[in-house]
Automatic annotation (TrEMBL):
<protein>
    <submittedName>
        <fullName>Uncharacterized membrane protein</fullName>
    </submittedName>
</protein>
<feature type="transmembrane region" description="Helical">
    <location>
        <begin position="84"/>
        <end position="105"/>
    </location>
</feature>
<keyword id="KW-0812">Transmembrane</keyword>
<keyword id="KW-0472">Membrane</keyword>
<feature type="transmembrane region" description="Helical">
    <location>
        <begin position="141"/>
        <end position="160"/>
    </location>
</feature>
<dbReference type="Pfam" id="PF08592">
    <property type="entry name" value="Anthrone_oxy"/>
</dbReference>
<feature type="transmembrane region" description="Helical">
    <location>
        <begin position="54"/>
        <end position="75"/>
    </location>
</feature>
<dbReference type="InterPro" id="IPR013901">
    <property type="entry name" value="Anthrone_oxy"/>
</dbReference>
<keyword id="KW-1133">Transmembrane helix</keyword>
């Protein structure tokens, strides 16, 4: 296996994981606290709109691309062993937490929020907000921590590979 392929897999995994970590971090630090300060209609309507708009090529390339790139980074370093492999395996484990929380908790909540219907037709917006907001925020905090940890592990792998 050439060094170029190893480096490309690790660089791609680092880039996509970093983009995902940054997105979840932005929701943790700014988006959800900002929406928490608004009324029920604003939070529900805004999150419905965000959930629709985030399903685009930019996001999907990073989010869905990170997992195979992480797997490729691990696979290309298997024969070498050492700290780069250990850091990439740790990053993959952390990213699996991110992926699992996203598809197991946040996406189903997003789908349920969409199924509630347009904000103009929701009978009790405060009830919708109550079952959505706190649980979604907790899940996002978990995936923020796990994705930032994965990104940090990949930075460590890159640095370990320099030596």
């Amino acid at each position: 296996m050439t060094e170029t392929i190893r480096t490309a897999a690790l660089a791609g995994a680092t880039l996509t994981t970093g983009l995902v970590a940054g997105l979840f971090f932005a929701f943790t630090c700014a988006v959800m606290p900002g929406l928490a300060a608004t009324d029920d209609r604003t939070l529900v309507g805004t999150m419905q709109s965000i959930n629709r708009k985030i399903l685009n090529g930019w996001f999907l390339s990073a989010f869905l691309g990170a997992l195979p790139l992480l797997a490729a980074a691990v696979a290309t370093h298997l024969t070498r062993g050492g700290p780069v492999l250990l850091w990439t395996v740790a990053a993959l484990a952390c990213h699996l937490v991110t992926f699992g929380v996203t598809v197991g908790l946040n996406v189903p909540l997003n789908n349920r929020l969409e199924a509630a219907g347009p904000v103009d037709r929701v009978a009790d917006l405060s009830e919708v907000r109550a079952w959505f907001e706190a649980t979604w925020v907790r899940g996002n905090i978990v995936r923020t921590i796990s994705s930032v940890a994965a990104f940090a592990c990949l930075i460590a792998a890159l640095l370990a590979g320099r030596g």
